[in-house]
Amino acid sequence: KGDTCIICFEAVEERTSYSTLVCPACRNAWFHSHGAAQHRQGPSHMLLMFVLKGLATSAGFGCFKCPQCRDDGAFLVEMHLLGIDIPRRSPSWESRGAYAALSERHSLCDATRCLCPQGRQYREGEG
């Protein structure tokens, strides 16, 4: 059983409660709930109340998973039941073009010795 929050690495109760959440799939990922963060002192604990909601908002429905086991079935259901809004959209990092370079094709022959019988310029536009 986990006794440490996997987000802030501080002790949590060893049972689920208003102040402690556990991933229903792996039962190894323990978190402070957003309610617990409100009752604790210090700025790091005040931020904890927004962590899971922030992860859900950023990842969207298709990519929000347990940070420990990566489960997205039971974890999504549990988070939804606990009131964490999970938007039905693509992850925010995809809308910023973070992976655009992966779809680009190489369009210039830069081999030291080109072996193409038609030369370096052949199929230049297609890569």
Automatic annotation (TrEMBL):
- Molecular function GO terms recorded: ligase activity
User: Record's superkingdom?
Assistant: Eukaryota
Query: Is-annotated flag, keyword Transmembrane?
Result: no
Which residue spans adopt a coiled-coil conformation according to this UniProt entry? none
- Provide this UniProt record's keywords sorted from A to Z: Ligase
Query: Which GO cellular component terms, listed alphabetically, does the Swiss-Prot or TrEMBL entry include?
Result: nucleus
Which PANTHER family does the record cross-reference, listed alphabetically?
PHD FINGER PROTEIN (PTHR12420), PHD FINGER PROTEIN 7 (PTHR12420:SF47)
**Protein name per the record:** G2E3 ligase
> What species does this protein belong to?
Bucco capensis (collared puffbird)
